[in-house]
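Final report, results section. Input specification for complex C-07:
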Amino acid sequence: MKSRNTFRKRILAFITPSLAYAEETPQESGLVKAIDWLKQNQKTDGSWGIDDKAFVATSEVAGYLEKNNLLPDNLQKTVTWTENLEILNNDI
Amino acid sequence: MTADANTDTAVLQKAVGYIVNRQHSNGSWAFNGDGDSNISLTAQAAIALSSFQAKTNLTSSDLQTAMRRAGEYLVSLQKTDKTWGTDEESIVDTLLSYRAVLNTVGLDAVDSVDTSILGVQNTDGSWYGNPYITALAIKSLNERQDMPNAKINSIKLLKNVNGTNTECYSYNAYETFEIQADSTYSNTEAKLLYFVKLKDGTVVAADTEGQPGWNTRSSLPGDYVVIVQVKDNASGRILTAAEKQFVITPSFKVGTVILTADPQNTTVDKPVTVSTEATLITEANIDKSLNLKFFVTNSSTVIATENKTISCKAEEGVNILDFSSFTPDVTSAKDYSIKIEVFDGENKISEGETICKVLPPPAPTRIDATQSLDKSVLYPGSDSVTAQFILKGEGVPEGPQRNPIDLVLLLDNSGSMSGTPWTKTKDAAKVIADMIQP
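Structure output:
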């Protein structure tokens, strides 16, 4: 559980630096839970979301994590997934 | 695109221009041309514009208007709980619009939305088990975190009357007021933004010579709103905003009447035809029809007269009118008075006058001066006029009059004067001889 606590503190420190050790607001608890859910629900190939929605969902999630320097290990897997994406030709 | 600090600003500006041009008049955007307005697309466009402004610090009245209109469009579609729906289909609209409204209209309009968003979070931490929605929800909740406190306590509109500022909320056309906002904010670098919302919903920056204020000019009579926003410098979020209503009352005033005669003067025995022109400068926000009485008199004898009815348009502050020309009698020196009287119905509201002179014959030897301007009216703002002065000599100058004298030249031709002294003496004597008048 030690690593879990460290993670929680990092998220909190990012959200509200001054309140990292103070009592959490509902917003903060919600955010911590949500980011944790994303961490747990990344697919093994590094993406998020299903089928044709995966690209949009993954870019939205990864864009946010990258910008805020969160979950770097998970992001590394996403980079690999993105690099292996097959570019479909959608011309009709 | 705006996430990358190094992206070429020129490329971004072009993209922002494209987005602004594609906005519908109700403030929304649609996926194709004039198609149906789309809430999440409108929200995303507003977020993009706001992000551009926060990152580049570039702004314009068009951009401000686009953002404010987008925000107001979204606010107009809020449900009673202030969201745009919280079920799986509509939550994306809420998550994006929440951020868009925070960035364009301010917190007050979406105060309780984060509670509604948290209300539909699953116990596992996700929203609808969907990573895309979850990521958007995280961004929305983040947007509100650490939002500095800001409050606008009051907004006053001040009119300068004889050097003293007086609170006033009713204005005529072409009146200027100053905006004074009392605000408090903490923990942040913020700036105050001032706007006037016009009757058609357009938002314009309220700025007179660098100071918060506005001139009503010919804006239509009606109810108007001053909007003051406190904008966080770093994030671009509107921390708070407040409004103050004011009224523009119907008004019509003739500011100045300028009469010009061309030529302005002539001289005896030089017949001319004098053409006349009147310039009416109005300060008005309503159209009005005016009766003009024009007459030319010479010592109480009316020699020319003309009546005209013109319709003055509020947005055209300058009306230029030609009146009939007349031919002054040039057998002797006299003055012609040219007058115009401006009537609103039966009431005389303004008048103008100029004099056309027949001057006595000039001295045969003289310098004539004429002047001309390449336009008769200068417009407010930056304008220029070229003035030309022509000086022309007439007649033959007379020589100076002298009293007659007897002049005898006596030259020393002795040996000591030989050479240069004698040559110079002869030259001097010739100069004197040349100056002798017949």
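DSSP finds four helices and no strands in chain A. The helical segments of chain A are 2-15, 26-40, 54-67, 72-83. This concludes the modelling results for the funded period.
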